[in-house]
Every structure is written in C-alpha cells, then in structure tokens.
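The passage that follows is intended for readers who have already worked through the single-chain material. We present the inputs for a multi-component assembly, then the predicted structure in tokenized form, and finally a short commentary. You are encouraged to pause after the input and sketch how you expect the pieces to fit together before reading on.
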Amino acid sequence: MILKTSPEVCGMGHSMKRKEDLRFIQGKGNYVDDIHLPGMVYGQLVRSPYAHARIKSVNTENAKKLPGVLAVITGEDLAKANLAWMPTLSYDKQMVLATGKVLFQSQEVAFVVAEDRYTAADASELVEVEYEELPVLVDPKKAMDPDAPVLREDREQKNNHIFHWEVGDRKATEDVFQKAPVKASVHAFFPRCHPAPLETCGCVADFNAATGKLTVYMTSQAPHAHRTVFALVGGIPEQNIRVISPDIGGGFGNKVPVYPGYVCAIVASLTLSVPVKWIETRSENLQSTGFARDYHMTAEIAADRDGKMQALRVKTLADHGAFNAAAQPTKFPAGLFSICTGSYDYSQAFCEVDGVYTNKAPGGIAYRCSFRVTEAAYLIERVVDVLALELKMDPAELRRRNFIPSSKFPYKSCLGWTYDSGNYEAAMKLALDKIGYAELRKEQAEKREKGELMGIGISSFTEIVGAGPAHTFDILGIKMFDSCEIRIHPTGKAIARMGTKSQGQGHETTYAQIVAQELGIPANDVTVEEGDTDTAPYGLGTYASRSTPTSGAATAIAARRIREKAKKIAAFLLECSENDLEWEPGKFYVKGAPSKAKTIQEIAFAAYTNMPPGMEPGLEAVDYYDPPNLTFPFGTYVCVVDIDNGTGEVKVRRFVAVDDCGNIINPMIVEGQIHGGLTEGLAIAFMQQIDYDESGNVQGGSFQDYLLPTAVETPHWETDKTCTPSPHHPFGAKGVGESPNVGSPAAFVNAVVDAVAHLGVKHIDMPIAPWKLWQILKEKGVAA
Amino acid sequence: MGQKIEKTFSVKEPLDRVWDFLSDPRKVVTCVPGAQITEQLDDKNYKGTISVKVGPSVTDYRGEVQIARLDAQNHEIEILGKGQDVRGRGSASMKMSGKLRALPDGGTDVTSVSEINVVGILAQMGGRIITEVSNIMFAEFTKRFQERLQQSSEAPPETAEVEPIKAGSLAWEAAKGVFRGKS
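Having made your guess, compare it with the prediction:
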C-alpha cells in the first residue's frame, strides 16, 4: 500500500493534471518541425516507385541545375564514404540510399538539399532514375520457396530466410498432443499495421564546422542509443554529438529505429556545414518507416475433456520486409513472443518463428507493444476461444479453469519467463460482473432465436514489459537499464532528468509525482527534463512500457539516496542521532517529538549553506537501474458487439477494460493511456492494414486507405482496475501504456466471432471491415 | 495493380471504315487523351508517350506500342503497350483487345477489353481511383473516336492534341465516382 501524500505534495495516486499540457493546449509545444536555425536548408528524399528493381542509372544533372539546389546525394556518393549501408537494430544492415537495386516501394534512392522545402521537392522530381523491374515477392510463404528469387544479394546466404527461433520442448509437446483427447487450432494473421503517430519522423542536423560539434534535433524515442549509433557508424567522437529529442507527437515504437532520412540530413550538414532539416510527409511515414506485426501464426492447444489445457504449439512466419530492422533486444529475434502461453498454466509448450525477407518496407517495430507481445496475446486469446467452441464450453469458464492460480506466483512458465505477480481470476470476475456477463449471454440466446447477431468477446491477457534485466536484455550490446538523476536546489525545488523520453505519456508529471512521493517535495516544484543527451543520464529510451519499470524505479532509488543524505543533515540540524529520526513525506522529525522537525526544504538549504562538517556539499543523486526481472501487467477486457446483417457493420455496444498494472502513479494518466490504446486496438481490429498488391504497390500508404479512428467510430470505454503490485519494483508499479493495445484486438475479434460462431465461423482475420463480414454473412445465408 | 476493363460502344460508320481507323495506331492514338506516337519502328512497333495527371501527380510514361495481333478477317486487333514514367516514378503496361462487329443498321459495334497494370505512385491511389481514371479516359477516347471517324474522310491531323488529360477535373470526377460508389 502506498502512503498517500497531501494534495499539495501530489505524490503517487493523485490524478494530477498533466504539467506538460499547459504548453500543448496553447499550441506552444516545441516539435522538431518547429525548430528553425539560421541558414537552415531542407532535404527531400527521392524514393523508388518499384518494389524490386535494378537501378540502371541515376541522373542528378537536371535536379542540380534547378536554382536553389545545393546538393544531390546518391547511394553511390554514400558508398564512397562507406555509408551506403547502415546497421539495423537486429544485426542486419539496411541501405541508406539504394545502390544496385531497390527492394521495396518508397525505398530511399537519393537525397536532394535545397534552400527551401519547395525547391527541394521540385528538384526531387528532376532526379532521373532508370530502373529495370525484377520479380516481386510479397507473400512470405512464397519467399520461402526454394526457387524464389533471392532478394538480398548482399548476403552470403542465398535464400530469403532470416532466422529460425524456437523455444520450449518440441518432443514433450508433441507427446502431449498425441495423447490429448481434445485439440483446437487456429491460423491467425496479424496484419501489417503502422503506428501512424500524429507527428511524422524528421530531424534537423546541425554540424558546426568551427566547434566540430554535431547537434541533431530528432524524433527519437531513444536519444542516447541513437547518439551511440551515430558515433559508431559515422566515426564521429561521441562527445561531439548531441541528440536532442524535443516534444514528440507520438512514437508508439515508430521512432525507435534510425531511418535513412536522419543519416542523409547528417551527411548533408557535415558536407555543407549548414543546418539541414528533413521532415517526412504522411505517406513517406506510412510507406517506409517501421511497420508492426505482419505475423502469420498457427496455434494449437491440446486439452482434456474438462477443458484443462495441457500443451500449446505455435508456429509463425514473420514477414520482416526488405531488411531485418525489427527493434528488439538482441537475444530475441521474435521479441518476447514466447509469452504466448499467456495467463494460462501450461505444463508443456513449443513455439517456433521463422523470419523472412519480402519486397516490403523494413520494420517489425513494437507498436505500443513490448516486442511481439501483442501478437502473442492476440494468438493465445483467439485460440482459447476456438477451444471453447470445440468443447462447447463458456469461454469465461474455460479461462477460469486454466488461469495460473494467484497462489503460484512468482510463476515460472514452461517457456522460461518468471511472472512476478498476478491475480487473473479477480480481474476477470470484476470485468464480467461489471458488464453483466450472465445477462448478456441470456440476451444473446434470445437474439439468436430472432436471427439477430450479437457477440461477447473476452480477452484475459498477460503482458511482459519493462525490458530489461542486463543479464538477458541488450540492444546492439547496450544493456537495457535506465536512469535518473535528481538535483535538489538550495530552495528545495528540484530538477530530475532521465534516460527515457516521453512522446506524450506524461513523464513530466508522473516522474515528478514519484519524486514528490519519495521526498515530499511538491510535484509542482519538480522539473522533469528528458531528451537532451548532453544533460540527461544515459538510458535506452521509452518503448515497451519500460519507463516506469526502469527510469521510474531509478527515480525512486535516486530519491531514496537523497533522503539518506537528507537524514544525516537533519540529524546534524536537530542535534540528534540518525536513529532517532522518523520520516514522513516532506520532513524528518524526532521520534516522540513531532514538533522537532526539519522539512526537506530546510534540509536542502542546509546542504548548500550549513552542511555537517566533513560532508560533501549539495543534494543530488543518480541511479542506473538494472531491473531484476520484467513486470507482468494483466487484465480482462470484455467487448459486446451488435452486427448489422444488412451491411456487415459491427457496432461496439460496450467495452469494459479491467487493468492491473500494480501500484499507480497517476490514475488519470493511466486511464488516458488505456483510452488511447483501446482506440488504437479498435482501429487495428476493424480498420487498418498496410497491404500490398502483387506488384508490391503499397495499398494503405495514405490516410485515404489507412484509416484513423475518430470520435465517430470510438465507443465509450468503461475502465476499472485491480491492484497486484510487482514484488520486485521499488514501488510496486508495472507499466501500463501498452496493455490496451495488446489486450484489446482479441476482445474485439472474439466478440465478432462469438456473434457468428453458431453459423460455423471459428475465426476471421483482422481488419474486420464491413465488406469482409458481409461476405461471410452472405455465404452463411444470413445477410439481410 | 492489375485492372481489367471491358467496354462496348457503337458508331454509325460502317465496319470497313472503322477497321481502317482502328488498325492504324497513328490514328487511334489521336483519340487517347494525353497520348502521342513519337516514332514508328516498323509496321508493328511504335514509340510513344502518354501523360496522365491525377490530382497533383503527373506521370509521363514513355514506352513502346506493339500490334501483337491484327486479324483483318475477323476484325480483331491486340495492342500491347508498356512504358516507364520519365521521372522514374513507375511504370504501366496495357493489353488491349479490340473487336468490331457490323450492326444491322449499317453501324459498327466496338468492343474492347483492356488489362492495365500500373506500378508506382499512381498505383498507390488504389483500384477505385485507377478504375475511375480509366473510365474517364475511355469516355474521352470514345468521344474522340467518334469525332475522328466522322471527319476521317479528310486527312487525319498530323499532330494530335497532346495536352495531358484534364487533370484537376479528372481527379475530381474520379473522387465523385468513388463517393457515388460507382465502379
């Protein structure tokens, strides 16, 4: 239980209004495109119209002749500086600007620099590229054919296979399957989707030839990691690189990778010694930057007739596009997909994933997701419903019979994870009670009699977030710790800096509340600063719901170190022994004599003006936090849908989301995060897909085809919570930002399938657009 | 992005005269909005250009046209066209089969089946836009075909109109088509 501080202090548990919103709602945020430097020029990428083609020639003469054009950089130019390729986050390499051939539509081919944005755009149309079209591979299954054209001629391996990864005991799992009386299986495709942050990617690269310093203002979720990558790849001394991530308009994993545009802008600034701005258009963002998912999955469950699940088998084909630019920890080519046993107590499981190259944009980023957890949660929650159909058992009851019991935590899963804490049955019970589950089932039966279609979908997901412990987790070798540095000023106000970077999550508020909780300094007196590598301590950034589990923990620990020193100062000021002091948020007092007290503000002043003899002045601390384990948030979502059998349109009547993310810092922010993630989940389930035609043309490369949910489509979300603190996190928090995106797609799809299950439908792939559902209804003879 | 478009229309002129016109690419091309024959390679092969503007996006295809089949007996023709955008923004290929049939009233029925494959920026606009653009182009083609046939006793104009298809209105017409749910 977290001690609640006064509203003035506003520590954990207070729904403090977001400090950052004051500038955002006035339009005074400072995003990359708001940055204007003297002498700044503009870059524009020339992109490939073909998904697979050999480049026969690139003619830049006409572009260079256009007045205002300063430079045109091609792949061949970069090759001379050994920069035509760059490493990806998955130990593959990726072309910065194409040489030899292009491998996906919209691939970067040349970079035009001009005095203004319009000239750069005009000049990009004057770059003449001659292509020879090559056969295109868009189907990952075909990419695995022995006679498929080899896309990556640069590799020694002459096929399109990237990796095979497996976990679990194949043989033991097979044995269980052979004897099992009941089996259920599903083939589920999680379509390629895109985070589509409101702000696209971009940067201003500013190389100062006089000082030798390169400053890069960029849309980066991981500024320190990007600085190190630039130092290693570009050979620039790291102290001469400063990465600044100003306000970021949404990231969702899309702003984790290094993109060719950043590198080109840096090269151009180094070459021209002027600041170079590069900002993506919406279509460039959708077509060329990190996509998510694109997993072709099969799951099978072996069970007994009472519905006790005995074994799980998962086989997946992962479409990674032209380069393996998946953003995930080194040891996990399929991310944390092996969380696919979910909330259930399996004795055996086996999971295998094969990654392949196709002629599509590279990526495989964790879209509001802790590295493939979304795919895993969707798959297990889908196949459990299929098993319920098989057994003719209520899907809630089937889940209840198989949950990992709360008495078994910490729980070691058969695929190797140690779940920190959980109480799955309590979360499901609350969700079912809140929605009135039994009544809804009755209503459904009555409606079926009348030929009306209504469905109830449940998703009892478990997440795995907060990467991660240094013994297992690194990205490009850098361990996945994170950090916080706190300085208390003489007047008792504070500044705290972290290695993470908010993209809208409200860090400026929540981290301040942690400091307030630990030190009793009002959250309003704590400035939180992130995103400047020259000032913030090193960290791996914000994604995978890791900020609270890592930097949040570091903040508490740094604050506690400050409190230790404060205690020594208080003892000196009160002329007593440290052992005689008691702490309550904001002050130390003498045991039994509460009036003999020193406030944290008084102590801070003394740290600079009247410190104990021999004590180092000042009051500050830094912590680099290496989490002992990941955290495992969970919840149950229940969705009720009504289907119009004339149009195939799905209406979400109700949606109850019960989340358990352990102890909560700011309930209002948590609720906001859940609303946002559920809305994204709704869009993924019903509206969005980055699809490709057989020639590799992107279908979904603009908001005309890639639909964003608006207030019109979004139903009313009903949220609630249970609280099962993480036993290893300093204040028992778990992370929540991604749970709603991870847990909700299965709830939506399960609800739709539930509405038509009596017609013999056991699965429908996302996105469930009205036309798709209507075709099924027509086929089943129930379309009006 | 592959599209198959079938169209039929009839003209008042007799079959032989229509056939004379249809089997001469230099004449037919004057009916295609934005198109031009730039060079005749032999009796079956030509070089040409076509300019298509959809909204802000102009695509100038430069390529070759080949008469793959010419059956005077049955009045059937098959034309293959293939071109790349001069600014390297994509390519398009087309196979068009035309067939004439004499009508009892002395006129002629023209049936055409076109298979169009577009790669690149234009193809991203999606099937609904491509189909709409094709429909508009075909409507314009039909109109011009009838006009040219009527005046074909006179010598056909040496240089055709090579104005790109009326761009702004074309995008608008296509958009209207989408909103009307027309395909």
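Commentary: Residues 547-574 of chain A form the longest helix (28 residues). The mean pLDDT of chain A is 97. How closely did your sketch match?
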